[in-house]
Each structure stands twice: as structure tokens, then as C-alpha cells.
Amino acid sequence: MNIENPPKTFSEISARYPESGTGTLLGQCIDASRPLLYLSEELAQGSLRTPHEHPRGQLAWAASGVLRVNTEAGSWVVPPSHAVWITGGTRHEILVASRAAIRYLFVDPSVLDRLPDHCQVMAVTPLFRELLLRLLSYDLQQAQTGAQQRLVQVLLDELAALQPSPLYLPSGQDRRLLVVMEQLSRNPADTRTLPELAAVAGASPRTLERLFQSETGLGFQQWRSRLRLLEAVQRLNRGEGSAAVAHSLGYTSPSAFVAAFRRYFGQPPQSFGASELA
């Protein structure tokens, strides 16, 4: 949405766009009297929120479906058991891997010091989920009651306490590295070796390994393994079974896939299976 002279405070937004609930506007709102603004929307599979940024921090939670959030630093996969925190001022895009019911919080800069200073995926607790759903049940256009204001403060406390999860795949900047990342992302089951991929990228195997380490903090094999595991989370949420996921992603057996999944996430694959939480 392109808007000339966009309103900044919530009262201005309400006056000029009384029917608007767009995240574009809510994310731009600077109003310490409304530390949390919120929005629900249903998005079809394949939907894309094109790259944008806003001063408010943003929490995105898909009660059903899977989100993928991309920034210059990397990408985050967000199943219904988790939410993604996007810091204010971070340029990002949101892709919907499957039909999703998304709940957003937009956090005013006046309270951002209580929250993480970097993007991350966090495990959603039952308490946080119920508090969020209660807040979303209120009419955003109405003045907040004392009870609602107290709910906002508790929700902020619970948001700050959510634990991060390793549903993140770092990206890089070097052209040769990006060539390999794109090749593998298109086909996570790709079994080509480091030397084979280095030849495609126009780099030596040693140089390519060094680039992975220096720009992502992961070795080549670690990065590819994480790519496959994050792809597995998306496929599990589409209803695919562990055996089918293991086969489609190139694991030698379902047991090898389950072992790798447990080793990285500390949980079995079924803990990330298809679900609908609200």
C-alpha cells in the first residue's frame, strides 16, 4: 500500500482509515499510548508480503499453516507451535508455504527495549497463545479499558520470556556462496558434493567451505543439513509422514532422518506435524 503522508499515531490512523487493519499502517504507527496493535488475516498458499519495513517490532504467529520470513541475514521457518519476532526497522518479506491464519502484534518502539534486539523464532507457550487470542478478540478501534491495558502489559512480559528455537537458516553475501545456496534451496535433496558445487560456483572447494564458515558460521555440511531439516518442518506441517519426508529429502532411512531431527531440535518430527491451534 502506497500512502502519501502516512498517519503516525493510532488516533490519526483510526480517523483517516477507520476500516483499515493493514499491517502496513499499524507497523508505521508511533504511539506509546497503544504499545500493542494487532491484526488477524487469512492468506492463501503461495501468498507473499513483499519486502517492507516499519518502526514497530512485529510478532507473526500462524495459528494454522507455515510461514517463511526472509531478511538479508537469512530465513526463518515458522510452524504453528512457534512465532517469529521481527525487529523494528528490519526489511523483511513473509511467504505463506500453506494456507495460513496469521495473527500479528505490532510493538511500539517505546517498549522495544524489553524485547529481543534481533530477529528470531520462539516457541509459543499455551499461556501466551491464550493471552494473544484474548487481545485479538477486542475491537482495536475502541479505547482500551483498564483491564485491557493490564492484559497488554502481561502479554509483553510473556513475549519477552518466550524461548528462541533454532528454526533459522543464515544467508550470505558472496556471489559464489549465493549460487550454491540457491541451487540447494531449489532442491534440498541434492546430493552433489562440495567439490561438485564449488565447480558450479566458480570457486575451489576450500574457498567455498571458507565462505560458508565466515558468512554463516556453519560449515557446508552443517548448512545443508539445516536446510533439509527446515524443509522437513514445512513438509511435516503439510501432513507428510516422517518416512515420506525422509525419502524426499535424501536421507538414507526414516530412522536416520528421525535421529538427525532429534539431534538438532531435541524433539521428534511429530512434534512439528500439522496442527491448527486457533
UniProtKB/TrEMBL annotation:
GO terms for molecular function: DNA-binding transcription factor activity; sequence-specific DNA binding. Signal peptide: none annotated. Keywords: DNA-binding, Repressor, Transcription, Transcription regulation. Pfam families: AraC_binding (PF02311), HTH_18 (PF12833). This is Helix-turn-helix transcriptional regulator. SMART domains: HTH_ARAC (SM00342). Residues 174-275 form the HTH araC/xylS-type domain. InterPro entries: AraC-bd (IPR003313), Homeodomain-like_sf (IPR009057), HTH_AraC (IPR018060), RmlC-like_jellyroll (IPR014710), RmlC_Cupin_sf (IPR011051).
